[in-house]
Design a protein that fits this description.
The protein has 485 residues and is an alpha/beta fold. It is built from 16 helices and 7 strands. The chain has 2 domains: 208 residues, P-loop containing nucleotide triphosphate hydrolases (Rossmann fold); 205 residues, no CATH class.
Length: 485
């Protein structure tokens, strides 16, 4: 499959998602209020390639040489001759425009017979900040005008050194082309289409994920409508209590980490000497054993806070039908929630289950557990290194583990607070949309059917994107096999 064809196929999926989005917003008007990031799906269906460079470097000629019958749009951009060093990378005013906001891919055009100026290199640094890996390429034009006494290899070597010095964290592909037409133009077009297809795919995957998140939010909101009686002061108190509880427990766990690591270290010393890999795995298991009870206690305290605060405004039993209908939002082994509590606890239990499930689906109170129990040692396993002394055990296993755990705990703190904010905002939406004056205007069964249908279509589009990816991968493998044969 040509890369251009792949872009067109992905564009079809993007347009399908745009149609589904429009349809759902017509059937569920308040759905748009829950949307956090609005993706430009029409732009995604026809991505933009910026061709940037100073005046008179051959930008227009390059666009004409590459052609117009392509599944993307060209955007010619003139690089400013002077760059203000005070401007932030990617700022909308940087160089008079924010190229990163206007295009998905960028070709920086340079003349082959002169090195880039300091201003151009400064602007390149900004481009490298706003265009991800693979989406920024450098093109040397007018190859046929290169002086005979100036070898192309020497020009390329000098340019690559300058690029490496300007953006040391990136490896930028460089293409030297003649606008009169050559194989080099075909190579550039092929590389451009390949990278643009990958960028479009990444953006489309993100859009599908965001859409799935919105649909989950809508299901949760419909399921929480019985909590519309919650008063603003109750929600504010709930927010504050959850924040304080998480801050307290995370601080306490952070203070205990050095002691937990030291205890595990002492238990493993009698096993020395031994390979680093099994020692690291054993460390992981021992830390898990020590941390899990603390996480279980935190889970119980979160349940208690939710039940206590919800009970201020809501009472009465709820049928198990409600729990069964929306129980799919909660994983049975939810880290900070005991599902059996919701099954037995009536309305308060179901409300707590939904809240916890919504949070875990998106960011992660579960991140605490994943970081400190399940995933804290990713990347820390040694390559057969043999640990012989207690000091080596401390340096090679214990200290990296402690530092990694601290970093992940900090990440967990940030995401946990974001989850608290998100859950409380969702409850505020419930109280507003299903308030006594508004509740009668909504046909919740019809709303639920619309969301369910949208979920089905989202999964279908996701499958199509996955199938397209594997089709393309298979074709690439077959082409490589033929070439090697």
């Amino acid at each position: 499959m040509k890369h251009e064809e792949r872009i067109r196929e992905q564009a079809r999926i993007a347009r399908g998602l745009a149609a589904e989005r429009k349809s759902l917003f017509e059937q569920v008007p308040f759905a748009k209020e829950l949307e956090r990031d609005s993706q430009d799906l029409e732009r995604m269906a026809r991505p933009v390639v910026a061709v940037a460079g100073t005046a008179a470097v051959g930008k227009s000629a390059l666009i004409q040489a590459l052609g117009s019958d392509l599944p993307w749009k060209w955007l010619e951009v003139e690089v400013p001759a002077i760059q203000d060093s005070s401007e932030e990378p990617g700022d909308a005013e940087a160089g008079g425009f924010g190229v990163g906001e206007l295009a998905e891919h960028c070709l920086l055009v340079l003349p082959v017979d002169e090195p880039p100026s300091p201003e151009v290199l400064g602007w390149l640094q900004q481009l490298a900040e706003v265009f991800p890996e693979g989406s920024l390429q450098v093109v040397l034009t007018r190859l046929d005008e290169l002086p005979e006494d100036l070898p192309l290899d020497a020009v390329l070597e000098q340019l690559r050194e300058m690029l490496q010095e300007a953006v040391p964290h990136r490896t930028l592909p460089v293409f030297a082309v003649s606008n009169a037409g050559s194989e080099s133009l075909e190579d550039l077009l092929l590389a451009l289409a390949e990278q643009l297809a990958l960028r479009q795919k990444a953006l489309l995957e993100e859009a599908l994920k965001d859409w799935s998140t919105l649909l989950e939010d809508l299901h949760a909101l419909l399921g929480l409508r019985d909590l519309a009686k919650l008063r603003p002061e109750t929600l504010s108190r709930l927010h504050l209590c959850l924040d304080e509880l998480l801050a307290e427990e995370i601080r306490r766990l952070g203070e205990e980490l050095p002691r937990l690591v030291e205890e595990s270290l002492r238990e493993l010393e009698p096993r020395l000497p031994e390979a680093q890999r099994p020692l690291t795995q054993a460390f992981r298991e021992k830390m898990s054993t020590r941390i899990e009870p603390r996480l279980k206690e935190l889970r119980q305290r979160l349940d208690q806070v939710l039940a206590r605060e919800l009970a201020r405004d809501v009472d009465g039993p709820v049928t198990l039908t409600l729990a069964d209908r929306f129980g799919r939002l909660i994983e049975p082994s939810a880290l900070f929630f005991d599902w059996s509590f919701a099954r037995k606890g009536g309305l308060l239990g179901v409300g707590a289950a939904l809240l916890m499930g919504v949070a875990r689906k998106h960011r992660g109170w579960a991140m605490l557990g994943a970081a400190l129990v399940g995933g804290m040692l990713a990347g820390l396993f040694g390559k057969g290194t043999r640990v012989r002394t207690a000091e080596e055990l401390k340096q090679l296993v214990a200290e990296p583990l402690l530092e990694d755990s601290r970093q992940r705990l900090e990440q967990a703190t940030q995401t946990s607070r974001a989850d608290v904010e998100r859950v409380c905002n969702l409850l505020r939406k419930v109280a507003d949309i299903f308030s006594p004056s508004q509740a009668a205007t909504w046909d919740t069964e019809r709303l639920g059917q619309a969301v369910t249908r949208a979920e089905s279509q989202q999964r279908k589009l996701g499958r199509e994107l996955t199938e397209l990816h594997w089709k393309h991968t298979l074709e690439e493998l077959q082409s490589a096999a033929k070439a090697s044969a």
